[in-house]
Amino acid sequence: MALPTPLHGVIPPVCTPLDPRGQVDTVSLAHLVDHLIDGGVHGLFALGSTSEVAYLTDAQRATALEAVLKAADGRVPVLAGAIDTTTPRVLDHARTAAGLGADALVATAPFYTRTHPREIAAHFRHLRTAVDLPLLAYDIPTAVHSKLAPALVRELAEDGTLAGLKDSSGDEGSLRRLIVALGGRTGRRTGPAPGFAILTGSELTADAALLAGADGIVPGLGNVDPAGYVRLYDAARSGDWERAAAEQERLAALFSMVDTGPESEMGRSSSALGAFKAALHLLGVIKRGTTAFPQLPLSGESVREVGRLLTEAGLTPPQGDHRSG
Hints:
InterPro entries: Aldolase_TIM, DapA-like, Schiff_base-form_aldolases_AS. The protein is an alpha/beta fold. It has helices at about 25-40, 60-70, 85-100, 115-130, 140-145, 150-160, 170-180, 185, 205-210, 225-235, 240-255, 270-280, 300-310; strands at about 10, 45, 80, 105, 135-140, 165, 195-200, 215. The relative contact order is 0.13.
């Protein structure tokens, strides 16, 4: 499938349901893909952070991506995370993704050892040359310990290396500087890199990013409430910023589920991903809320709090869900 230019809309990073043995639950994953597409999303991002990509073996990554592609069945573009420490390892994932039929790749800067911007640029250029798929950069400095500077992203956008950026840096100023560097909110389509997609990974400031000129949203919480983020996006695109802000505020309240796991007892990743999966289980989308080892599971009390937040947000389980099947 050819990517729209620019890539836009709501593109959730798809959770990876697991069975009790920690293997990919492909049946639940297919249900999740249908849940997202039925919610109106414009694309899917498989094998991102919310997909627990760092916890999956190479074989599990391929299984998950293949299941997402099969379930999507060409209805929306599928972006595949090719996320690993060094260029050769990322290339292996990228070639696997291309062979399975992914529509685009998403990669971070190299990590584990610190890299210079020139090395990061060479990394992205080598990936783009080696695998003939659109390539998006994933800016997530909390995980890779390198911040992609606006000047570097602009350089790689202008020379055609990058087709877009998923910004999960939390640095709203840097994101705004990049939008301005590429022509500003109203001039980006005739700027130095027409067609370059800017996507925010923030669940909490999606309306602000869209107002600034971002093209789309990649929200982990979008697994739970894809239709809510689609309503937010549609309101923003129509210029109804009051309605967009109201939807954003409802989603911000729902996002508090990521803190249901006590900080004194478990990591923030365990709490957030456990909450998303618990919510999907409660909503009847996936069979169980298992997270990858060694992440700790949510307690019954935390799961009940997730359920309360779902109810407050107007989300209720359907009758006759498949969880017992």
